[in-house]
Amino acid sequence: MSDCVFCELLDGGDARWVAREDHAVAFLPLPGGELAPGHTLVIPRAHVVGVLDCEPADLNATIALVQRVGQAMERALGATGVVVLNASGTDSGQSVPHLHFHVVPCWADDEATFWPAEVSAHRMAVAGPVHELLAADLSAPERRSGSATTPGGQ
After folding, report:
1. Would you tell me how many other CB atoms lie within 10 Å of the CB of residue 41?
2. What is the mean predicted confidence (pLDDT) over 53-70?
């Protein structure tokens, strides 16, 4: 997609590449945009807006690269953990409309917290407990992906 900054990078743009694989790539944010040393963005090569419209194979490849980047952060940078951040969709705060995961290394002395400090103010008027509504939707025949998991994780 020509008006997507990440697609432009994939088409030969200048980036500080960490990994380039068949279905996903990893690169550092623009200078000055790092949340921590080694903060890395991981994206699928296919243009999709978020996790909700990504093909499973591309999502699997992207998440596998997220995991490998996090493992490299522990080995190469001495990180003691990572935070993986993603926002998908119109009201999520997504900054670039191309699926991306921020993999942020963490250390005991980094004095940073990457967990949201606020909770949603949205209140729902739904017919039933939220977990039951979600479970019913996921178990509908047209939604099933062949998984043997039942509502409640059994």
Report:
1. 24
2. 97
CA–CA separation, 123 and 149 (whole Å): 29
Phi-psi region of 56 (alpha: psi -120 to 50; beta: other; left: phi over 0): alpha
Element (H, E) at 119: none
Radius of gyration of the chain measured on its C-alpha atoms? 18
Residue by residue, DSSP assigns 43-71 as EESS--SSTTSS-HHHHHHHHHHHHHHHH
Type of residue numbered 87 = A
User: To which residue do tokens 């909770």 refer?
Assistant: 119
Length of the chain: 154
Residue 103: closest CA among 78, 80, 86: 86
What are the pLDDT digits (tens) for 104-126? 999 999 998 888 888 888 888 87
> Does the structure show a pLDDT above 60 at 146?
no
Q: Give the pLDDT score at 75.
A: 97
Starting from the edge strand earliest in sequence, which strands make up the sheet with 81-85, in order? 17-20, 24-27, 40-44, 101-106, 81-85
Q: Which of 61, 62, 67, 52 shows the shortest CA–CA distance to 100?
A: 62
Report the Cα 46 to chain-centroid distance in Å.
14
